[in-house]
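--- STAGE predict ---
source: upstream dedup step, 1 unique chain passed
mode: sequence only
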Amino acid sequence: MKKVFIYILIFVFVAYPSYWYYFGPVRGSKEAEIFIIPKNQDRFNLVQKLEEGKFIKKNKVLEYYLNTFVFFSDVKSGGYKLSKNMWALDIFKKINGQPDLVWVSWSSCLRKEQVGEILADALGWSKNDLTKWNTVYTNSSPEYFEGVYYPDTYLIPVDEKGGQVAKRLISRFNEKFAPLADRYIEANIRWVTGLKIASLIAREAAGISDMKLISGIIWNRLDKKMPLQIDATMQYTLGKNNQGKWWGAIDLKEQKKDSPYNSYLYKGLPPTPICSPNIDYIDAALNPEETDCIFYLHDNFKQIHCSVTYEEHLNNIKKYLN
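--- STAGE serialize ---
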């Protein structure tokens, strides 16, 4: 019994204080803070960032323990809810688990169903959640049905509801569009009109080099009150093709399908944008290149060739595509 008592005294007065000193909480605050691990961890020093954030104590004993016994090879990028009253080992156990917030990103102009698929994969949505995204959460008003789910990189809580995610993406769109808002008003162009045109440009352009030219051609067709005849609207009408692609090849029968998005049958812009463009395309819709061209095509090297007359367009088809 005497030895046991001595061991207890050693633990109480020596071992535990030492353990607390090196591995204990930095502060007593229970308030959760978000600790972010970037998508690219090449130059990210996890221990150093935790020390700088005052989540763990900076000392050689803890660093030796971490370098010897703790492995960070499987740590996932994202956000982790940590508090400064957590012990060091609890913090590393938390970080070796699943993140509380995940990185979600896309860059191209996607229709809302595609955005939903990316979100569902990242956030672990059920089929019912994805259905609600397509039919409820993105259908709060006609103007927000399509085109406002801005392509960017987001850090999203895994438990965030679909409606909240939709508002998050719309807020990012509003933030990006704000610098152009007054210029659209000055040009007497409704923002929804500009967004429709921007979405067409984004799906038709081969890159930033020709987006303003395509914008000019689209405006020319609108001014002449001729059908836009843009294949991307047919792709939008079709949805997923037989190969499971949203923007796959279409055949001529699509040009005869009766749909308000059919830019071969109906003049003017489609009822909504056909995807969510970034700010470059929204700017291009506002600032088209002056051109007399009405027609255009891209050759096999994605170089654009435009023409003023349909006869010139047919010659370009023979020259660059056949």
